[in-house]
Amino acid sequence: MFWNEDIGIDMGTAAVLVYLKSKGIVFNEPTVVAVDTHTEKIIAVGEDARRMLGRTPGNIVAVRPLRNGVIADYSMAEWILRHFIKKIVKYRFLCRPRVMVCIPSGATGVEERAVRQAVLQAGARQAHLIEEPVAAALGAGICIEEANGNMVVDVGGGTTDVAVLSLGGIVRSSSMRVAGDDFDEAIIRYVRKEYNLMIGECTAEELKIGIGTTYPKAQDPGSSMQIRGRDLVTGLPKTSIITSEEIAEALQEPVSQIIDIVKEVLEQTPPELAADIFERGIVLTGGGSLLHGMDLLISEETGLTVNVAEDAISCVAKGTGLALDTMNVLQDMKPD
After folding, report:
1. Are 166 and 280 in contact (CB under 8 A)?
2. Residue 240, CB half-sphere, CA atoms under 13 Å: how many?
3. Is 97 in the same domain as 26?
4. Could you tell me the pTM of the whole model?
5. Is residue 107 part of a domain?
6. Which 3 state secondary structure label does DSSP give 307?
7. Mean pLDDT throughout 272-297?
8. Are residues 21 and 159 in the same domain?
9. Rounded distance, CA 297 to CA 139, Å?
10. How many domains does the chain have?
């Protein structure tokens, strides 16, 4: 079937996406593993494990093995990779595919070696690394091989990567460990401060997706959601109503940091490429780019056209798979 195919993996802080050329995205699961601490047995992985976050008994721990785009728990990260690779090459125990994995543009040498080693230990024949902005651009359909400037802003779960690309490589880039997870944490802090209400990660994410906005002027002024949590004063369950304006206020700090890094990279961009970007605009990818008003706010702050890529969440995963078939792009990747 497709057991001889190479595999592209976007192993992000929030989710793992696996790409096959013949099938497209074959897996899109949260990067979460549930472990029984008494027996050290894996209870669940992916979506089933995510539902357990904040709901497990004492002997079961829901672990997120990646933090800020890099491996925080090596053994669990290796287990997740092995789990998905084995699913793809099921019953083909002699098959060892080539695997391309993306990494943040600011990853250190130690972090790169950890990712590569985890992929090889999981059963890959070869492990290649590609920087997230390059993969995102390829997945968004941008022709980065030409002598034209293209700017990509990839807002993932753990990191935001901003890069100017030309002639198949990165000309200017910066990576910040502020992204979707920080949006959730900012919402949790705001609700705790303003309402004395403790909510979990899943509730914060529901708020972000449901009524989250960075640009209240373009949002329905009546948008609100009811949330449930624990009252920090009485210790009892409590419900409150949160509006989109309040979520915008909660997200102001992490979003402003992303705006700052975009401006910083633009300031460092050579004039000729800056002219190309003025003409072509900025392309947003990653799940964080789908936050309501993100494109409008960046456009207002920079004076440039900003477009959210089609299927923004899958761009990096698609790019990792496409890169394996593009030799001139492979030459510009991180060496083995």
Report:
1. no
2. 20
3. yes
4. 0.85
5. yes
6. strand
7. 93
8. no
9. 24
10. 3
